């Protein structure tokens, strides 16, 4: 995965989608973590490490949601240097979609929230996950995309940090709340 992280800056030379490439190692961490929970002995005895299809579908939905989230926050971040990047010939989603970044990010956010919801359904998460994780992420994404002024670098930096904390915090809090509900048997 480290090689993929190292590849990210070089991708700005040949593709307008380095944000998607940055999201892949983050998503792979989700997939590898889920795979590690299957357990080697059990997986090898069945011959199919991803035999539980709803869990696999939930994992893949969560991984795709992570890629979309990375594309959103890193595109907002990239707007800080938009003018310099255009002059230097650096490619990014911010450069490619500079006149339609907010609609693009809104579409990506819609996909992210839908994938988070699907992951929850497929993993049979308790209602608290949908309230805190999914709805919380949706609200945080809306606030971020409405509030950020993409023409002001300081606003981009501010909402990159705040959005990262709020949206990421909602996603993590949704999982933690679901864990607590499961742990204490409240569901």
From TrEMBL:
Organism: Aspergillus uvarum CBS 121591
Transmembrane segments: 20-38, 58-77, 103-122, 128-150, 162-186
Pathway where it operates: Secondary metabolite biosynthesis
Protein name, per record: UbiA prenyltransferase
The UniProt record lists the keyword Transmembrane: yes
GO CC annotation, single: mitochondrial inner membrane
Cofactor: Mg(2+)
Primary location: membrane
Family: Belongs to the UbiA prenyltransferase family.
Pfam families xref list: UbiA
Localization: Membrane
Lipid bilayer topology: Multi-pass membrane protein
Alphabetical GO biological process terms: ubiquinone biosynthetic process
Alphabetic keyword roster: Membrane, Transferase, Transmembrane, Transmembrane helix
Alphabetized GO MF terms: 4-hydroxybenzoate polyprenyltransferase activity
Source species taxonomy: Eukaryota, Fungi, Dikarya, Ascomycota, Pezizomycotina
């Amino acid at each position: 995965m480290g090689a993929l992280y190292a590849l990210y800056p070089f991708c700005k030379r040949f593709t307008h989608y380095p944000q998607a490439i940055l999201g892949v190692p983050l998503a792979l961490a989700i997939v590898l973590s889920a795979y590690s929970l299957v357990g080697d002995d059990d997986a090898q005895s069945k011959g199919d490490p991803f035999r539980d299809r709803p869990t696999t579908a939930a994992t893949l939905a969560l991984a795709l949601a992570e890629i979309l989230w990375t594309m959103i926050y890193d595109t907002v971040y990239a707007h800080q240097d938009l003018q310099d990047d255009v002059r230097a010939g650096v490619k990014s989603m911010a450069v490619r979609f500079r006149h339609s970044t907010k609609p693009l990010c809104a579409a990506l956010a819609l996909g992210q929230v839908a994938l988070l919801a699907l992951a929850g359904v497929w993993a049979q998460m308790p209602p608290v996950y949908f309230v805190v994780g999914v709805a919380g992420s949706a609200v945080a994404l809306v606030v971020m995309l409405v509030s950020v002024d993409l023409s002001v670098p300081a606003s981009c930096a501010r909402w990159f940090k705040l959005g990262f904390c709020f949206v990421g915090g909602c996603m993590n809090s949704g999982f933690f709340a679901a864990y607590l509900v499961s742990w204490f048997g409240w569901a």
